[in-house]
Request: fold
Amino acid sequence: MDKERDKNRGAARVNRYEQQVNLADIEKAAELAAALNVPLAYLFADSDELAELILSYSALDAKQKAKILADVRQKSGADKSGA
Reply:
């Protein structure tokens, strides 16, 4: 399918969901995320900052993700390693 057409359909669906005409189920949300080429979690972010963080994090490689996650755990006090 044409990506531009997928994006247009996705935008129409999002508009209907925003207007509460339809309620999204997880399968439709996953299809929408795939059509928009964004992580599924992005669609459920409750702030612009979280959405940006999700997009940025998803663009990193595994090693970078592990470092970021360790840094965030340490800074938030959620580090279980005792370091």
User: Anything to note?
Assistant: DSSP finds five helices and no strands in the chain. The radius of gyration is 16 Å. The first helix runs from residue 3 to 18.
